[in-house]
Amino acid sequence: MVYLSVNGHADAMPPDLHALIDDLRDEQAELRDLLQPLSADAWDAPTPSPGWTVLHQVRHLAHGEVLGRLAATDPDAFAAELTRMLDDLAGLEAATTAPNDVDPPASAMRRWWREAEALRTAMASGPPSGPIDWITGPMSRASFLTARLMETFAHGHDIATAVGVERPATDRLRHVAHLGVATRGFAFTNLGLAPPEGAARVELEAPGGGRWTWGPDDAPDVVRGPALDFCLLVTKRRHRDDTALEAGGPNAERWLGIAQCFAGAPTDGPAPSPV
Q: Which fold has domain 173-258?
């Protein structure tokens, strides 16, 4: 597995690009296997993302794979596509939510899987630390792939929720959890708040057993609990009140209330489940 440096602590491992690509492939393959037997009605099922069906989620993932492939292989083409996209956000939304007869489920899934394979191949050809230009600025290939796995996990969770499937938690969640820890400061600055000084201690129960940890033992803020709950929280797929996470220290609970591991404007996420 790949872990990026968090707060300068030695519990981060050096990047292994090919291991990360393998984990991304497995996360994508699990989603593909979930999608393949779905009926037409299931592809039209609404997901937790307002206004988006299962089909819309897959189209969104496919577009992300295209952008990533271009960023890794053709920076000029990526820049042109990004400009076109930003100049026509309404058109991008219209393409994502086009009627099924324009881009039916089978075609959308084949395109997503083809582009996902092409992205993995493109990413494998460069050094883990070699930067690529991305929407949010230059990123290492390892960082980009970690973010891509997080996106696949999050949108895959939306799809599974829509069709009533409970996906098993896997140790691939450590990538998502690591990103959640690494973006602690961003969660505050994204809201115009000063991030807490110093590191936080995060101790998560791994799906396969054992414990994953980040940060120094004597950190003033501590978060403990199931890794799946933490990952669903930082991807804005579960409300804080619906997790078994424990927070201690002056700023830990503040963090869990605003945690967001993906770029973009602050997102509220789901409401708490009815009692």
A: Nonspecific Lipid-transfer Protein; Chain A (3.30.1050)
